[in-house]
Structure formats: C-alpha cells, structure tokens
C-alpha cells in the first residue's frame, strides 16, 4: 500500500493520519517534537525542521505523495523535490497563493474573482493614502504567516494607521491593506481536486468567528430560501471549483468568504482567504458527510477516485473546543463524560494538546434534524 508523507504535526496531520489507517495507507510524519499532536498518534514519525532541505528530502524518500498540514514549507525546497521526481501535492505554483496574501489577491483579481480593494504597503504614505481612499475602512494584514486572527489589524483613524504601519515595517513585517467590508456572515466553500482533474465540492458552510478564531461551523449554511440567498451559496461553490482549477490546486481547498451586500442591498460574496489543505471549517465532514475532508485529501493527492460529498444528516454543527482563561480543575475525561451524558449524540474529537488560553484543543460535532441548528 502507498506511503504518504505529511509535513506538519498539528491536529490536521493527526486526523489525516487517522483517515489513512482506514484506507490501509502508511502515513509518515515530519514533526518538530515527539509530543506534537500528530506525532502522538502516528507510528512513522521523523523529527525535523520543515525549513531544512535535508530533513524534508529524508522524509519524502519512497513516498507516493508528499503533502502538508500547513502552507509554510519554503517553495524552493519543494521545487527541488519535484525536480528529483517526488510527487508533491499541492505544488508550489498553487501553494504560493495560500502563502502570500498579496500574491493571492492579485491572482484572484486576474481571474475575476470577487476581492476587496487592496494595496501593497511598503511605506507609511502607502497606508495613509489607502486609508483616505477607502474612507478609513482599513484592514492591515501580514502578507505571510498570519492565521486565527494573528497578523491582522484594524486601526482606528489615520494616525493609528500611520503609527501601526511604521512599527510593523520597522519590524520587517511585509504588509498589505484591504478595504474592511460590512460583514453579514462568513462562509467556507470547500472542494477537493485530483491532479488528473476530477473536482468535487462539499456543501457551503457558515462559520462563526470569535476573536479571529473559528468557533463553530454549520453545514449546510443556513438559507432563507430567497433567490438571492440561494444564488450566494451556488456562486460560492462554483467559485471554489473555479479557483481550484485555475490555480491548479490538488487535495483539499478551502475558500473562506465574506458574505456582504451590494449597493442595492443584495447579498454578495468576497474572498477572504485560501487554505490548500484540510481546514477547520471542514471538520464537520467527519460525521456529517459520506467522505471526510481527510480521507478525500489523501485520495486526491494520490490521484485516486474521489468520494461522495453527500450529506449523511440534514444539518451538522461543529464546535471547536478552545482553551479558556484558566485550565479547568476537572480532568478532561470527566468533562467528556458530562458532555456525553447530556448529549449522547455528540462526537468528541480530542487533539492531545496541552491547555493554553485560546488554543484549539479539539472539536465536537453533532448531527441534527432540519431546523434545529438555528
């Protein structure tokens, strides 16, 4: 059976490895530490640094496919692997659009995808000029490395914009700015694509963010039945398929979207971020869909037939388990037992991580009848 190398050691790699067991695959992991989330649950673990070419090359040896649970492996390393005949999925030509937000914005604009006004920020003058152009509705972003609300700033006023940009540029943070949108809700459109071209989409979901972190996801996204609401969900799914094909994405792609309104008050979507790997907003597929995002990702990077994305329940809700301000005195197993006593249908997924405030420690999914999720 094939060997798949996953570079990364977080919960996404952990759950991908678990899906690999059911498929009869061997999953090899490049991990930074033996107690990392995925390393705890994986038999074939290589300790190393994903920025070290020798470490990446070693873990890729004999792999039928090399894939990732994050987008941060330097593309120069991946280009070398590809030149040596290694099957890297997704490839650097696609990954760059998830690694650099400015590159992503420019490429999506070329494709005609809906994006907010944006600008490369290389000076304070760039930032204040953009502030004036968008009437103060400024969202600053680090071009690389930000996630879960990190690397995103919403300065209030021209002076704060100038001061913040001066500080960040002094620290060497590459920046871009985009116009802050009037948000109705956030959506996530997810697809999987094989190198040979087959592409399938899951139902679009609504995600609820708290402090920049996904707290809940509801699948499928609630819809009031109006023509405009239905059109938004159709457009979101079609957009994700188009992006995957145009960018050459392989494996799972999550297109995070803002739903907003146009000048006439009609709903519309704007692309927020891209993720080329399994994604937090896709965890519901483990219990609410025929084929989970983790199994689908493995099938896709191996260029094997993709599974059905049909729902197995009318509604599935996923809630992240986030570390509170203090570490609870009650042991985790007892807390899990209490959840099961109250909600026997709850599926609890634990990541094996130590407590830290705000940290993603696990998630819970529940399948529900129509109408209950609201």
Structure report:
The chain is of the alpha+beta class and 374 residues long. It is 31% helix and 27% strand. It contains 11 helices and 17 strands. Strands 9, 10, 11, 12, 13, 14, 15, 16 and 17 form a 9-stranded antiparallel β-sheet that branches. A 4-stranded parallel β-sheet has the order 3-2-1-4, sandwiched between helices. A hairpin with a 2-residue loop joins strand 11 and strand 12 (213-219). Helix 1 packs across helix 10, helix 4 (92-99) crosses helix 5 (101-111) and helix 6 packs antiparallel against helix 7 (158-170). The mean pLDDT is 95.
The proportion of residues forming helix, as a percent range, comes to 25-40%
Shape type: globular
Evaluate the radius of gyration: 21 Å
What is the structural class?
alpha+beta
Poorly predicted regions are none
* Total helical elements: 11
Largest sheet: 9 strands, antiparallel
One letter per element, helices H and strands E, the order comes to EHEEHEHHHEHEEHEEEEEHEEHHEHEE
* Oligomerization status of the protein chains: single chain
Number of strands: 17
Give the integer mean of the pLDDT values: 95
Terminal Cα span: 44 Å
In short:
The protein has helices spanning 11-23, 53-60, 75-83, 92-99, 101-111, 124-133, 158-170, 227-247, 285-288, 293-301, 332-342; strands at 3-7, 26-31, 44-47, 65-68, 118-121, 138-142, 152-153, 175-179, 185-193, 199-201, 205-210, 213-219, 251-261, 267-275, 315-322, 347-350, 360-368.
Can you tag this structure with a few keywords?
11 helices; 9-stranded antiparallel β-sheet; 17 strands; 374 residues; 4-stranded parallel β-sheet; alpha+beta
């Amino acid at each position: 059976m094939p060997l798949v190398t996953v570079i990364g050691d977080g919960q996404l790699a952990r759950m991908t490895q678990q899906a690999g067991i059911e498929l009869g695959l061997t999953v090899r992991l490049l991990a930074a530490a033996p107690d990392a989330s995925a390393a705890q649950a994986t038999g074939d673990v290589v300790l190393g640094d994903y920025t070290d070419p020798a470490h990446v090359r070693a873990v890729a040896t004999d792999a039928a496919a090399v894939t990732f649970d994050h987008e941060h492996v330097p593309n120069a390393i991946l280009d070398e692997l590809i030149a040596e005949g290694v099957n890297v999925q997704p490839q650097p030509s696609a990954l760059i659009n998830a690694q650099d937000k400015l590159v992503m914005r420019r490429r999506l604009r070329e494709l005609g995808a809906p994006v907010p006004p944006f600008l490369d920020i290389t000076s304070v003058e760039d930032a204040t000029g953009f502030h004036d152009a968008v009437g103060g509705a400024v969202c600053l972003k680090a071009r690389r490395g930000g996630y879960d609300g990190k690397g995103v700033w919403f300065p209030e006023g021209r002076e704060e914009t100038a001061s913040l940009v001066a500080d960040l540029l002094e620290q060497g943070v590459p920046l871009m700015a985009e116009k802050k949108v009037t948000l109705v809700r956030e959506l996530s459109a997810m697809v999987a694509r094989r190198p040979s071209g087959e592409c399938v989409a899951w139902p679009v979901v609504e995600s609820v963010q708290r402090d920049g972190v996904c707290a809940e996801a509801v699948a499928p996204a609630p819809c009031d039945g109006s023509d405009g609401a239905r059109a938004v969900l159709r457009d979101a799914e079609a957009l994700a398929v188009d992006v995957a094909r145009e960018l050459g994405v392989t494996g799972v792609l999550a297109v995070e979207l803002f739903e907003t309104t146009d000048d006439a008050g009609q709903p519309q979507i704007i692309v927020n971020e891209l993720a080329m790997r399994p994604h937090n907003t896709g965890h519901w597929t483990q219990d609410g869909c025929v084929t989970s995002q983790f199994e689908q990702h493995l099938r896709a990077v191996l260029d094997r037939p993709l599974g059905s994305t049909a729902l197995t329940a009318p509604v599935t809700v996923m809630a992240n388990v986030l570390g509170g301000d203090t570490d609870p005195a009650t042991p985790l197993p007892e807390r899990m037992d209490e959840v099961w006593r109250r909600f026997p249908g709850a599926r609890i997924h634990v990541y094996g991580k130590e407590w830290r405030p705000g940290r993603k420690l696990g998630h819970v999914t529940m399948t529900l009848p129509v109408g209950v999720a609201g």
